[in-house]
Structure prediction request, 270 residues.
Amino acid sequence: MKVALSEVAPFTFRTLCLGLGSGVLFAFLRASGQPLAIARDQWTRLALIAFFNITCWNLLVVFGLALLPSGRAAILAYTMPAWAIPLSALLLGERLTARKLLGLALGMAGIMLLVWDEFNRIQGAPRGALLVLGAAFTWAVGTILQKKYPVRAPLAGFTAWLMLIGGVPVYIGALLFEDFSKLADVGLPSALGTAYTVLLAFAWAHWAWIKLATSMSVTVFSLCMLLTPVVGVFSGMLFLGERPGWPEYTALVFVLGSLATVIVPNKRSA
Prediction:
């Protein structure tokens, strides 16, 4: 995303991701003869989930990322468990064990460290950090809604419609505020970054994410997602020349510790 956004405008980038990503899924479903229809009484649920999981998440992340290093943004964006776990206990009745509470505490420690450091860096106006944290919160809300009010539809078709419908406000924003003709001037690195995001991060990974979110407990699924910031920090160092400081490394320790609270016990019990 960071590479792509260096040359592709935010609304245009997300329009390509959501529009083409859903298009790839629809084409696959059509070619393989899988159903595409969504029952009429399920559209309200789908639209509500799409608003939080797709519209809010994508817009808040893409604008927040423009103001933050990619590694820091990844850590903040994947603090979703800090919001999802308490919400799952409150709204879904999931039991908070000692290990889950420990994982939540470690994740929150990482959040607070980065947010406090962001306040110090930009003199009390952490717009980028707040935008990305807002994205994490809306993702958590959407995940809870997905569990509490599941849409009765085939998983792949549901995923494709979710991206297409959730992207409608994004498409409108791109038409109103940005110039698609500038895509002709985009260089190869940004074009490849956009293609990667469309084909892997959206067309495939969105399906995989929804598959996991609907088949696992919110706590286990959420904490497992914390591995993503680890990749974000070190890929930012490798490809973008970013140099994380002690706050990022310390936050990563907290994140990995949070992840271990659900992963290590499961391996031992197996």
Notes: The first helix runs from residue 2 to 5. Residues 2-269 form one domain. The radius of gyration is 19 Å. The chain has a mean pLDDT of 82.
